[in-house]
Design brief:
The chain is α/β, with parallel strands linked by helices. The chain has a single domain, classed as Rossmann fold. 47% of the residues lie in helices and 15% in strands. The strands form three sheets. It has a seven-stranded mixed β-sheet, sandwiched between helices. A two-stranded antiparallel sheet has the order 3-4. A hairpin with a 5-residue loop joins strand 3 and strand 4. Helix 2 runs parallel beside helix 6, helix 3 packs parallel to helix 5 and helix 6 runs antiparallel to helix 7.
Length: 259
């Protein structure tokens, strides 16, 4: 090798080293992929299972979850177990990838009547990538004006109230309409979780969540909807919940008049 060839080879090696160093520097400077930011409202008298089913899926998907309460004081759920918010309305992220509301009829109606809660939902919902709920949580979305002009569902015994707040009722387990995703009562939260999981991370990721949860239901009775359970069983529930349902109807009418 003569001097010219040596110098050429040396220059090429130096250039390769510089390019490799620059590539490593660029990789180090590139930020890690941003985790989806999920805001889950927590309120007194919510149904714990409405929250924990989707929360488990969001955790598996490694999202950035915020449990948002009106304050940071613990809230009591339907089964008596407290839930500690991680954020208040004041400290919650301004922009969310997912705004989620669990149900629980008493807690939902109380939230619908609370101006601060409705204002918070409206503020975050107008900017969220996805606006979502399980069970009666959709009534609160409706009260905040977030379902006007959208198809939606809710728990079977109050879903007929949604049109009072401008929504179009669909009697399905999970209803998707653009960026609104609402689910029926309680156990529909897992179906919702897989639906939103697919929207956030793809079908394969959602399938892995389903397998990890071993969600392969085979209930002992075909009584999970009023249509299947029959009027005799459904009427007993409606009679026992009549006062709460009437209060929800009044709150929905009042909210609809304000939208």
């Amino acid at each position: 090798m003569d001097r010219r060839e040596f110098n050429t080879a040396l220059g090429a090696a130096a250039l390769a080293g510089l390019l490799a160093t620059d590539a490593r520097a660029q990789q180090q400077q590139q930020p890690a992929a941003r985790k989806p930011v999920v805001g889950m409202l927590v309120h007194s008298d919510m149904i714990l299972l409405d929250l924990t089913g989707p929360l488990t899926a969001f955790n598996i998907l490694q999202t950035d979850v915020h449990l948002i309460g009106k304050s940071k004081q613990p809230v009591t759920t339907d089964v008596g177990l407290p839930v500690m918010p991680t954020d208040s309305f004041e400290t919650a992220p301004e922009v969310l990838d997912v705004l989620f509301v669990p149900g629980g009829l008493k807690g939902t109606v109380d939230a619908m009547k609370d101006a601060a809660t409705v204002a918070f939902m409206k503020s975050r919902g107008e900017r969220a990538r996805f606006v979502t709920s399980v069970c009666t949580g959709s009534l609160l979305l409706g009260a905040a004006g977030l379902l006007k002009g959208y198809s939606a569902t809710s728990h079977w015994y109050v879903r007929d109230l949604l049109p009072l707040m401008g929504a179009s009722l669909k009697k399905e387990r999970v209803v998707e309409d653009r960026n609104r995703i609402t689910a029926g009562g309680v156990t529909a939260g897992l179906d919702f979780a897989l639906t939103i999981g697919a929207r956030l991370a793809g079908d394969d990721a959602a399938k892995r969540v389903q397998l990890l949860l071993e969600y392969d239901p085979k209930p002992p009775f075909d009584a999970g909807s009023p249509e299947h359970a029959g009027p005799a069983i459904a009427d007993v529930i409606l009679q026992r919940r009549s006062a709460a349902i009437a209060e929800a109807a009044a709150a929905a009418k009042d909210a609809g008049a304000k939208i």
